[in-house]
Specification:
Layout (H helix, E strand, L loop, with lengths): L3 E6 L7 H17 L1 E6 L1 H7 L7 H15 L7 E4 L5 H12 L2 H5 L2 H9 L8 H4 L1 H11 L4 E4 L4 H18 L7 E4 L27 H9 L20 H9 L3 H12 L5 H27 L2 H30 L5
Parallel strand pairs: 1-2, 2-3, 4-5
Helix pairs in contact: 3-13, 4-8, 4-14, 8-9, 10-13, 11-13
The structure holds tryptophan.
The site of tryptophan (TRP) has 14 residues, from strand 1, helix 8 and strand 4.
């Protein structure tokens, strides 16, 4: 039996090149090898901003379209919304019964967010339990492998501890999920900082060719290369970092790098080359995305089918949980 992969993403809107290189390329590959569950975690989105839920629906839609566009395949993977499978809430409740407050209060991401995020109220009961819901997401499907970025390591550790604690009290129900740390290549945004929606510096998967060119054209380069005749240093250039991730033509890269160091080419030449590689990747993605976008019914069907499949697995786990705890079975 193929191992089971589970991963989730909060619906924050259109995804960018950082998501593509850091997660989605791998998620697509995992479909060849594993039994994959990919979940858009809309309850988690509410948790991080409960006072304004107005964009959750459209954000879920954008994430789903980006996923389908890059090649997550609803015939091979189970693609669904967290809120469509009610058992997430039920397992979250069961795990919350045995979740020690200390684990949650000590969680570094919790401490960090409570300190640093001022425009949202995060002092809620549920927000403290963010890692408990995340554990429920994974354990509900007995997920064995969880591909995530470094920032989620502490949460995954809590998921394993929750699995162990449940098994200790009630008998072996859950495997301990293993983190697959996807080595995240450096993808800077247009201002040279890490690409992130909140910095407003991202190049999105679904941006039009014109938008992408405009963002690249005005993107920061080696700050020391002020004029065309100044030689540049690719190692100090954020555009070059993006080349390294999305341009696999090594001969061309050698030529560009040499041209930059000798001022033989200008930044625009280098950006044009990058543009053509990016579009080579994004054009088919955007075409597939459009084919789903044009049919609301197809999108809804993907979500229904995903939720049905997910719920069949989830229901089995929940009945095991109920038996393990010792409630009267339904
Ligand atoms: N917390 C994750 C993030 O912010 C999203 C997430 C929720 C998740 N549940 C999950 C990731 C389960 C992996 C597995 O990126």
């Amino acid at each position: 039996m193929a191992k089971r992969v589970f991963s989730g993403m909060r619906p924050t809107g259109r995804l960018h090149l950082g998501h593509l290189a850091g997660a989605l390329f791998n998620w697509v590959r995992f479909q060849d090898e594993y039994d994959c569950y990919y979940c858009i975690v809309d309850w988690h989105a509410m948790m991080s901003d409960y006072s304004d839920t107005s964009s959750i629906t459209s954000n879920c839609r954008e994430v789903l379209l980006d996923w389908l566009g890059v090649g997550l395949d609803p015939d091979r993977s189970t693609i669904f919304l967290q809120s469509h499978v009610p058992q997430h809430a039920e397992l979250h409740l069961a795990l919350s019964m045995i979740a020690p407050l200390g684990w949650l209060e000590r969680c570094p991401t919790y401490k960090d967010q409570i300190l640093n995020i001022q425009n949202k109220d995060l002092s809620t009961y549920a927000f403290l339990g963010y890692p408990v819901l995340m554990a429920a997401d994974i354990l509900l499907y007995k997920g064995e492998l969880v591909p995530v970025g470094e920032d989620q390591s502490a949460h995954l550790e809590i998921s394993r501890e929750m699995a162990r604690r449940f098994n200790n009290f009630f008998g072996e129900v859950f495997p301990e999920p293993q983190t697959i740390l996807t080595k995240t290549p450096k993808v800077p945004g247009t201002d040279g900082r890490k690409m992130s929606k909140s910095y407003g510096n991202s190049i999105n998967i679904a941006d039009s060719p014109e938008e992408i060119w405009e963002k690249l054209r005005t993107m920061m380069t080696d700050p020391a290369r002020e004029r065309r005749k100044d030689p540049g240093d690719p190692d100090k250039c954020p555009v070059w970092d993006i080349h390294k991730v999305f341009n696999n033509d090594m001969e061309e890269r050698d030529r560009l790098s040499e041209g930059c160091r000798t001022a033989g080419i200008g930044c625009i030449d280098c950006k044009k080359a990058l543009y053509s590689h990016l579009m080579g990747i994004l054009e088919p993605v955007q075409a597939r995305r459009r084919s789903f976008e044009s049919s609301e019914d197809d999108m809804i069907e993907v979500l229904r089918k995903g939720a049905r499949k997910a719920e069949r697995v989830a229901a089995v786990t929940i009945s095991e949980v109920i038996r393990a705890i010792g409630f009267i079975p339904r």
